[in-house]
Every structure is written in C-alpha cells, then in structure tokens.
Write a structure and sequence with these properties.
about 1000 residues, alpha+beta, Arc Repressor Mutant, subunit A, five-stranded antiparallel sheet, 58 strands
C-alpha cells in the first residue's frame, strides 16, 4: 500500500479543526483499501476523541513503546562528523548531549543548531549547552530540559536590559502574529510603533536561528518555543504577555491602516471589468498594497480584540471607524478576496466592545453592525468588482445609516444618488443567483452556509454571509435535485433527486461519500437526517417512505407504506422517535422511526395536496403546508388539529418550517411571498417578504432564528432578516448624536430625550415634532433625563459630572448645576412626591438632592464597588434602588441613607437598569448577562426565573403602570414586553431601530412605550 505520514498534527489549526480533519480523513480512508495514513501527534483531547472507537483506526502510544535515544545518538554523531573535522568534540561530550536531550528530538536539533550556527567555536558552544541547568523532564515538567536550553540560548545572546527588551518585542511579535512574516515585513512594522529598527530585527533573527527558522523567507518557530515564552517557567526578562503583544500589534496595524489606505489604491480604471478579468491585478496588489498593509487589513481586529484595551487603543479604533479609512480598508479586503474577513473583523470588534466600558464604544459597535449589513447586502458586488464598493455600495447606503452620515459623504469621488434613497436597510439581506430553478434550501448547523438543490441537477453550497458560492457545484445526479439537508454535525449534505436516488456529499470537499442510495422506483421528493446523524429518511413519488443506514448505505427494514398518493415531504422528529410524511393524498402521517409502523391515524383536514411537513423543536407538534393555501398545526400525540388554519397566502403553500425556539412558523408560497406566523396565535407576524418573481419553493430558518432563507423558481436564493415592527408614526429625529435617555411627561403628552450632542429636547408625543428650543448647558454628553412629577421641570445628568434641573416652559436651567459627584453622572430619577432628585455615578456613589434648593440632602450613599449605572425611587419615595457594574442591585432607605438588607445578587454581569413596580412590592433589573430579573423588594429574593429572549446586552427596563408587564430594550435593537405573571414574552419584539436601544419608558396610561437609540432616533410603539 501507499503510506502517507502526517507529523505534528497538534501543531496545526485549532482543536475543532483537527477533529474535523481526522473525522473526514477516516471517513474517506475506510473506502480506499490501498492507502495507509500514519498520523503523529502529542496527546490532545480533540485528536484522541476523533480517533477513539473508530473502525479502520489503530492507536499507538509511542511514549510507552519507543525511546528516541538511539536516533538522537545517530543524529549527533552524523552532524558532528560533518562539522568536527579535527575531532575537537569528545565522545563523552556527545554522550552527555544525548543524555541531556532526554529523548526529545527538538532538544537535540535546537542544541545542534546553536552549537554549529552561533558564530563561536564548537567546543565553547558545547560547554554553554552542557552547563545549562539540565533539569530532568518528568510528568509534571515534560519539557524542563528543553526550557532550560531555550533559557541558556536567549541569555547567551541577550545580555543586557536593552537587548533583552528588544528580544522580548521581536519574539513576542513573532509568536503573536497570526501568520508567518518575512524579516523585512516584521522589521518595517515593528519600527512604526517601537524603538526596534529593521537592522535590530534582522540581527536578532540571525542569532536566533537555533530557535527560529526561515522557510521561503518567512519566520517560523516550533510550538514548544511559544509554549516556553508564555509559560511560568520562562525568565521574566523574556516572558511574553500575549495581551500586551496583541496591543502592540493593534497599534501597529492601526498605524498602517491609517497611513497607507487610500481611495482606489490599485488605480483601477473602471467598474465594468470584474476583478478576475484584470490580468495584472496581482501585480497591482503587490505594488500598491504593501505586505504590512496586507497583514494589517486582515488581522487588525483580531489583535485589538485580544489585546489590552487602553485609552490610546480605544481612540485609535474610534478615529479609524469615524473616518474614510474604514471604507478604504474594505477596498483592500475586496481586492485581496477577503470579503468574509470584513465580517469576521466586525464580529471581533463587536465582541471587544462588550469587554470594555459600553459608553465609550457606542460609535464603534454601531459602525461594525453597519459594516456587517453593508457587506451582507453588497458582498457579491465586492467580490466581483471592487470599484462597486463606491459605485454601488456607498452610493446606495440608506439615508439613516451611520456609514452615510460619518464616512461616505466625504468620498467626493463616489457616485451620488439624488433621489429615491431607502431610509433604512430592508428585510432582504442577500440575493443569490443560482442560474437555475431552486427547489430546496437548507442552512448548515453553524449558520455559516446554505445548500441549495436545483433544476440543473446540482447541489450548490453558498457562504450565507457573503452570498459567494463555495467550491464547485456538486454534480452526480441525472435529474433535478428536489431536496437537500445538512447532517447534524454539518459535515455532510444529503440530496434527493427525480433520478430516484439520494446521495451523501462531504460538505468540506464536495466529494461523494459512499454509493447512491437506491431503492425508490420513482423520483425522490424529500430527504431528512435523523438527529443522531446515523440515518436518513426519504420520501418519493412512488408513495413510500424509506429509512437508510448511512454507514452501510442499506435500507432499514421494508418501505413505510400507507399513503395512496405521492409522498411530497418527510421530516424526523427532533427526539428521533418519529418520522412524518406529507402526501398528495391530502394527509400527513406520523410513523414510528424504529418499527416503521404508523403512529396513530393520518392527520386529515387539508382539502388539497400536503406539500410540506415539519416537527416543532419539542417534537410535540407537526406543521403542514398545503395547496389549499393554508398552514395547519397538529398535536402529535392526539393527531388533532391545534387551533384554526393559518390563512393569508393567495397561492399554494409550498414549504413550511418551525423557528428554532418553536415560537414561529415560516412559509413560502406560489404567491411569491415568504411569511412568518406566530405559532401560538396563528397570526401573521409583520409584513410578507416580497421580492421573488416566481414561486417560492423552499424556506428554512438559520440556527439562531435571526435569518431565513428562501429558494424560488426565479433562480434565486434569498436571505432575509426576520425582524418586524409595531411602530407608531415616524421616528422622532433632531439629535445629531446618540440618544441616551428618554422619558414620558406625567400626562404622557410629551417625551423628553437626552443625547451625546449635550442637549435635552422635548417632543410632542402625538405629532412627533420638537417642542421649543433644545436645553443647552451641559458641557459633555447627557446620560439621563427624567420629568419631575409636576410636569413643569426636567432633571438631567451628564458626563460633565453634574445634575441640572430645567424649566419646561422657558428651557432655562433652574439655579446652578448640582455638583458633588467626582465622575460621570450615569442616571437620575425624581421622587414621586417631587421633593428629591437621586443620581448615580461612575464614582460608585448615589447622591440624593433637595429638588427645591439643589443642595445635597445627606451624605452620598456608598456601598457599590463599581459604577452605579441606574437609580430609581419607590412609589412612596421611601426607598431608592440602584444597579451597578458590580453585578448587584441594592435598596437604600432614602431618609437614613442606609442599605436595606443584603444586595440582590443573581446577575452574572453588569446590571444596567433598575425600576420599581407601581405597588412598590417588586424591583426589575436588566443586565449585560442578557436577562431581566424580578425581585421581591422586601425579601430580596428573585421572583421566578430570569426573563430571557434578548440576544444581546439589556440596556433599559421599566414597569407598565398597571404592574402586569415589564418592557426591556437591548443591544439587539429590539424592545420586548414581558408578562410578569407568566414570565413569557407578550407578543412580538418591537423592531425598527437600526442601532441598539439605549433607553425606554412607558406612557402613564400604559398604551405606549417610547424608546431611544444609538441610531439617533426616538420611536413610539403601541
């Protein structure tokens, strides 16, 4: 047989990538009898897991059966035979070297490189090595001898603090870089932000050849070196702090991006020629996009995320995201074919933003979210022709997008659209041209890819974010592909075809896995995987359902027979116990997946073909779509229909699917629309998704439920955003920066808002018009606003450390600012009796003020160990509740200033907002941990389970006036209302904001909610 050896697998890729690689490898090798593969690796849990209990795999522990001493002896003697012509090296020296190697070939190789390449004579170098500490390796310290050698080599060359610091910067940069760099590139980049010059880098690399090596001009290192330099065993003068090194790289990358990016960097003459047809594009890239810029463009966000978030770094990122450079960066990524890298970078920066103080980073996260939306919509244009970044992308960005407001207006070279602009991004994210009628679509389990089956007999895989096809079409079927499905682990795709066969494909390689599944005597209409990935079910126009073992490719028992018409759709229950099938005979049938017997009577009620069936995530319900234009839900235990049919489509329902949380149903129809329905009420959610120009044949949810994909006979695959809204009127606009706080007047006729533009504004809640002039006086961002109970005065807090009280009629400030806090005022509230104002601050204290005199009513309330983020009064004005970044909620006696009982603990991250219930019996809190919690204000105990549903940090919470509901706003851009009694979400989320929700409040009659957002708008919801 042919033998392939793969050495050091543990040094390649991430653990999960290693697992996937080995899983794919053994799957294919089981079918290739003439090939053997030897995989060698250090002990690694993912590698062991991938190889355990697998046929065709034998495991050997070489640490038990093999010693390298003999090989190391041969290595040393042969190398010295070449270098030691005059026999300066004694046999005893070589024996001692072999002993010190302790069976580690990497020790022997490193020692030999040092001895022969350090520029000193062999004998002197050997003495340096032999005099190293020579700790014996053991179970607790398997690399002790190697680490001692590394230490000795570094100390030999870097003998003073200056050279040691230079070594630290250079090795740290090499170890922390995300790809190997050339000496020239490393030198050029280091000298931008450090005192390490190119000659210093080159000299250091030359003397470190014993521990570093060059391949095709790039610098590489052994994994053990990185482990040593970051371990506790490394001497302090050489030890690498990865976060600090990533911070250095972040600064360097920011410097490169800000100085080297520019408009049309490769001097492309036209947008009409696709990138792949520009013959000299690679040369243009090499000439105009330097290697430092290529590296920085791809990896800046990764370094920023993993580095220390200093004020300097924050400001650099802020400046970058507010400038045209971020658009020019996208141009570089487009030219290099790294469209997906834009999305990855945006994701990294958003995650970084979550780790630092939220208020500092609003604008950065806003831009990253817009970049994701922009890239999703224009990915194909960016992939095909870079100039369309400007010609199409920048020109068509919606009016309300921060990209338009902050960057694109400065691009004078871009095409300008003078009318017809969309105000905000629509529901549709991507339109993928498949060039053939699409009959089936499916999301991969990780949500990163979409598979489609088409009339042209192919299966195609698409990047769900960039819309770009991944690899070549999967070919093999001899007739149209009617159905596709991903295996639960995402490694495989099964396709069914009118050629009467089903085929399993490797999602990674696009190659066929095993033989065709043959047995049906007519076309296959539908395929599905079992939850454990061991079986697939197929439905056919031969009126049968068949279950197959994917390992053997054989049919399990006899076909499932019972339908008297073609089988149109099949699905497995998530618990693996049942299979459901739909048929032209107008029925759906549930089958026992283990026995093949019918489970109960057929589900009857449709008056035309059943075209599509799916189980709910909890396996308790089945949804069916039909040519009778209705969707029906069935109880799987009783076989009875649940509620009334879902009606609204004006054409045949062709496909249905449950959302991952089971709360919604998705449908596609011959009326060319995609619709979402509330699974509980049967009502349509929001508006229909319009855009397809022919039948919608297939629909599916993304795993996170945020997106849906549809396939159509119009030869397109479309990806849609599921968000909808129940907004009243148009957004209230006028602020020129992020809105941080909103509140209703006591008579709910007006809304007050505070903003980063340093102003406070009042709006007519009915007309949406601004009332009077802005209230000006704060010298920094306004963080919080509230009405006094008389409705004639407003109180505001600010980053200028002050609290101010304003006259609503005159817009003038009452008396002087209320001063006492030593840091930003984060929250203000008024006592219901109108006598006091309370404020919370970043200085970790709470201050109560006399609303009449503006003087402190008592000493500050102290107890929180981090920023106070939110304060609120109880209805009787006797207590104050506060939330803090220290993860706790505290209740204080407003008269004595003393804390009442123990802190309310339960949140696992920063508490961002608190409020009292109208009866004063409860407190509600929201947190960065994505939960809303209700507490008994007397006992301090949590009431019920946390309210969960938001997909990001919660920023604001409030009680309804009747105390039956709680409203919450979050970074996921949604407003949600919760039933306090049941803990369930009441209705659909309110969506429409294009940036995170910063603040919200109920109207006093409970009919409306007002929300403020970082998108600079205020919205009122029914």
């Amino acid at each position: 047989p042919t033998i392939i050896i793969i050495d050091g697998l543990d040094e390649w890729g991430k653990p999960m990538e290693q697992h996937i690689f080995l899983d794919q490898l053994q799957g294919h090798l089981s079918k290739i009898k003439w090939l053997r593969v030897v995989v060698m690796s250090r002990s690694n849990s993912e590698i062991q897991k991938a190889m355990m209990n697998k046929k065709h795999v034998q495991l050997f522990d070489l640490t038990m059966d093999y010693t390298a001493h003999q090989d190391i002896e041969i290595f040393f003697r042969q190398r010295f035979a070449y270098w030691d012509d005059d026999n300066r090296i004694s046999k005893s020296d070589i024996d001692y070297l072999i002993s010190k190697a302790d069976g580690l070939f990497i020790w022997a190789n490193t020692a030999m490189d040092f001895i022969t390449e350090s520029g000193m004579d062999l004998a002197s170098n050997i003495q340096v090595v032999l005099q190293s500490k020579g700790h014996e390796s053991g179970v607790d310290q398997p690399h002790a001898a190697l680490y001692d050698l590394y230490t000795e080599i570094l100390r030999q060359y870097f003998t003073n603090k200056q050279s040691q610091h230079q070594c630290l910067l250079i090795t740290g940069a090499i170890i922390s870089a995300y790809e190997p760099l050339t000496i020239d590139t490393l030198g050029m980049m280091l000298q931008l932000e450090t005192k390490v010059t190119y000659p210093v880098v080159k000299r250091a690399i030359d003397v470190l050849k014993a521990v570093l090596y060059l391949n095709e001009g790039k610098i590489y290192y052994h994994l053990s070196l990185a482990e040593f330099l970051t371990s506790e065993k490394c001497p302090a003068e050489f030890k690498i702090q990865r976060a600090l090194q990533h911070q250095n790289w972040g600064r360097i990358c920011m410097k490169v991006l800000s100085t080297e990016t520019r408009f049309n960097i490769c001097n492309l003459e036209t947008s009409s020629i696709p990138n792949h047809e520009i013959r000299d594009l690679k040369n243009r890239i090499d000439q105009n996009i330097s290697l430092p810029l290529q590296y920085s463009a791809q990896w800046w966000a990764h370094h920023i995320k993993n580095g220390e978030a200093t004020e300097s770094i924050v400001q650099k990122v802020r400046s970058f995201t507010k400038s045209c450079q971020i658009i020019f960066w996208m141009e570089c990524m487009s030219l290099m074919g790294k469209i997906h890298g834009i999305l990855l970078s945006a994701k990294e920066i958003k995650e970084w933003a979550l780790k630092i103080r939220v208020s500092i980073i609003f604008f950065v996260n806003s831009t990253m979210q817009e970049l994701e939306q922009f890239t999703n919509v224009f990915a194909i244009a960016l992939h095909e022709s870079t100039p369309h970044l400007y010609v199409s992308g920048c020109a068509l960005v919606p009016v309300e997008s921060p990209l338009r407001e902050n960057k694109i207006i400065h691009l004078k070279q871009a095409v300008k659209v003078t009318g017809g602009h969309a105000m905000k991004w629509g529901n549709i994210l991507n339109v993928i041209n498949s060039k053939s009628n699409v009959y089936s679509v499916a999301y991969s389990p990780d949500g990163q890819q979409v598979a489609s089956g088409s009339l042209d007999k192919t299966v195609r895989i698409w990047n769900a974010q960039t819309s770009i096809q991944t690899g070549e079409p999967l070919r093999g079927h001899t007739d149209r592909v009617t159905s596709v499905a991903w295996s639960p682990d995402g490694h495989y795709i099964i396709s069914g075809s009118w050629d009467k066969t089903a085929q399993i494909w490797s999602a990674q390689t696009g190659l066929k896995v095993g033989e065709l599944l043959k047995g049906h005597i007519d076309g296959i209409s539908s395929v599905a995987w079992s939850p454990d990935g061991q079986y697939v079910v197929t439905g056919s126009w031969d009126k049968t359902v068949r279950i197959w073992n994917i390992q053997t490719g054989l049919q399990v028992r006899e076909p499932l027979k019972g339908h008297i018409g073609y089988v149109t759709s099949v699905a497995y229950s998530p618990d693996g116990q049942y299979v459901v099938s739909g048929s032209v005979d107008k029925t759906a049938q549930i089958w026992n997946a283990h026995t093949g017997l019918q489970a109960g009577e057929p589900l009857k009620g449709h008056s035309n073909w059943v075209t599509s069936v799916r189980f709910s995530p909890n396996s308790k319900y089945v949804v069916s779509g039909s040519r009778d234009r209705t969707i029906r839900i069935w109880n799987t235990q009783t076989g009875l229909q649940v509620g009334e049919p879902l009606k609204g489509h004006i054409g045949h329902v062709m496909s249905v699917a449950y959302s991952p949380d089971g709360q919604h149903i998705l449908s596609g129809s011959r009326d060319k629309t995609v619709r979402i329905w509330n699974a509980q009420t049967g009502l349509q959610v929001g508006v229909s998704f319009n855009g397809h120009t022919n039948w919608v044949t297939s629909v599916a949810y993304s795993p996170d439920g945020q997106l849906v994909v549809s396939g159509s006979r119009d030869e397109t695959v479309r990806i849609w955003n599921t968000q909808t809204s129940l907004q009243v009127g148009k957004p209230l606009k006028g602020h020129i920066d992020y809105i941080t706080s909103v509140a209703y007047s006591p008579d709910h006729q007006y809304v007050v808002s505070g903003s980063w533009d340093k102003t406070v504004k009042i709006w007519n809640a009915q007309t949406g018009l601004q009332v009077g002039e802005p209230f000006k006086g704060h010298t920094n961002w306004v963080t919080s606003v509230a009405y006094l109970p008389d409705g004639h005065h407003i109180v505001s807090g600010s980053w200028d450390n002050t609290v101010r009280i304003w006259n609503v009629q005159t817009s003038l400030q009452i008396e002087k600012p209320l001063k006492g806090h030593t840091d930003t005022v984060t929250s203000v509230a008024c006592s219901p009796d109108g006598q006091y104002v309370v404020s919370g601050s970043r200085d970790k204290t709470i201050q109560i003020w006399n609303a009449q005199t503006g003087l402190p009513a008592r000493e500050p309330l102290k107890g929180h160990t981090d920023w106070v983020t939110s304060v609120a009064y109880s209805p009787d004005s006797q207590y104050v509740v506060s939330g803090s970044y220290d993860h706790t909620v505290k209740i204080w006696n407003s008269q004595t200033g003393l804390q009442v009982a123990e802190p309310l603990s339960g949140h696992t991250n920063w508490v961002t907002s608190v409020a009292y219930s109208p009866d004063g019996q409860y407190v509600v809190s929201g947190s960065v941990d994505k939960t809303v919690r209700i507490w008994n204000a007397t006992t301090g105990l949590q009431v019920g389970k946390p309210l969960q549903g938001h997909s990001s940090d919660i920023t604001s919470v409030a009680y309804s006036p009747n105390g039956r509901y709680v409203v919450s706003g979050a970074w996921d851009k949604t407003v949600r209302i919760w039933n306090v009694q049941t803990g369930l979400q009441a209705g659909e989320p309110f969506t429409g904001h294009i940036n995170w929700v910063t603040s919200l409040a109920y109207s006093s009659d409970g009919h409306y909610v007002v929300s403020g957002s970082a998108d600079r708008t205020i919205r009122i919801w029914n």
